[in-house]
Queue: 3 jobs
Job 1
Amino acid sequence: MQNRTVNYIADTNIISRYFSGRDEETKILVSKLGLNKMGISVVSKFELRFWISNFLICDKAERVKIIKLINSLPVVHLSTLSSKLAEEMTDTNINAKLADSLIAATCMEFNLPLLTLNKKDFQKISGLSLI
């Protein structure tokens, strides 16, 4: 993690909506919580790179701008503990998505709440705090 205080981790869907400018409600929510207090899981960073390369419709200059903004966020990396927590989640819930399990486990390891628009999948995870 970078040397900036992280108060919450944002899920991939929050970051993509925030930086693409598609969702004013998400921008207001992130502003209230503090963009400077937001971190992202390394898993979300990988997902966002894929999204930018394959789905985001904008010119090259806009893509570079979004990549710089994403790179400015503190990244919370996976550890042995978070990978074991994610493994337990997928062992007990066969429908658990790998990326969601890794993001949730990272939040749990660092005792950080997750800001997501996908509450339905995450609310099933015991010990995970959602915003």
Note: The mean pLDDT is 89.
Job 2
Amino acid sequence: MSESVVLDVEVNSPIERVWHALTDSATLSKWMLFKTNDFLPVVGHTFQFRDAPGWDGSVDCEVLEVDAPHRLAYRWATAGQGGVPHTTVVTWTLSATAQGITRLHLEQRGFRSDAKQELAGAKYGWRSMLEQLQQLLSEA
């Protein structure tokens, strides 16, 4: 049985701005842990997240779904702990409220049940990155 990270936040920003922050390579580098990426919001596009402070690895990804500005999914593959490769799927779901707030749902699914360190790291990392995203979108 696999495990998931599920986080929900409300962002005080229009859905189009939030979508841009999730799908623009330069903007991703401003709020994600990884400072380098070659992301394009095109199904089938393979890309990497690289240059995370304190980590010399990379994340190999492939875009699986793009439904602007409501849904984005990509495969997320790392070397994993102990050299055991680990592949999950990250899915972002966005919905707008009448008040101009965007509800952002993040799910990273497919963690092996024995991958406790990866799961804990993902929870911590996504919480931190979502805080950075909210801060970035509140600045403009």
Note: The mean pLDDT is 94.
Job 3
Amino acid sequence: MPSDTIVAERRGAMDTAPGRVCDGDMIQILGFLLIGVVIGVLARVLRPGRSGLSMGATVGVGLVAALVGGIVATLLGTGSLDELDFLGFVVAVIAAIVLIPVAEGIAGKKK
């Protein structure tokens, strides 16, 4: 017989139709976007020299870097993709600093 918690979780899962975003998912998406903005802007400030990236591209770099930080933290066992801990945040900022020139090179080729 399943426990009450498992039954409640199953019942909650049935309440959300496939393809529909529930409130908890929306908060995680907004949090991920906010962290991407913070990481992208922080990396842009910490990286010396002028950046040729638009703000949208900077946010994109921050989002990719947040994923990298979350994956590294998960692999090291200190965090998860759902929650970016301190180590994941530091790795994400470093990844963004490394990714900014890559993004500038890609953006430069498109011009």
Note: The mean pLDDT is 78.
